[in-house]
Amino acid sequence: MTRVDTIEGFLQMRDTLAAETIHSRSDGDVAVPCMAVLLVRRHLLEANDYNPNEVPGDKLELLRRSIVDNGFCFPIVTIFDADRAKFVIVDGFHRALLGGEQWLDFDYLPIVVLDHGMTRRMAATVQFNKARGVHQVDLDAEIVRKLLEQGLSEDEVATRLGLESEAVHRYKQLTGVATLFRNADYSMAWEMAEDGT
Length: 197
Prior knowledge:
- The protein is α/β, with parallel strands linked by helices.
- The chain is built from seven helices and eight strands.
- The chain folds into two domains: 2-135, Alpha-Beta Complex (Conserved hypothetical protein from pyrococcus furiosus pfu- 392566-001, ParB domain); 137-183.
- It is globular.
């Protein structure tokens, strides 16, 4: 197990992190990032600014109890953001929150680091949330808007987020951002005609 006390320390050992894979007969090689868990100083983590997942207080207490009783079984999923010089959380914000001084007050937290750009990390956050059944559907529209602004097509967004194409279109409408429709095919439903009276 590798402990990371500084960003400089991470950058020095970053290239030694081996990407483990397992082979899927249907989808080829699949990465296994949980084989490269790092223990990093808590202050090196930062929340993302797009996660629509919320956990009520009673569920946070249950998660705290689970960590105490069962240990920290699931590492926090992050990416390394060189501009911020921080590990930005993709999944596991509430586990990181519980590791803070208001709750369990850990010095280190277990993380895995994905090599994802913005589009993939946003999609990953939604995938993780939905797979656990705790995603707030009413905030999907904001993620859809951001992914479309990143240049993904409606079909790509639907595929990555597990949505129907119609849902992506509705979310576009909900965000109220006219620029998302600037390249949409548009036709008049009716035509104006002079009344001969």
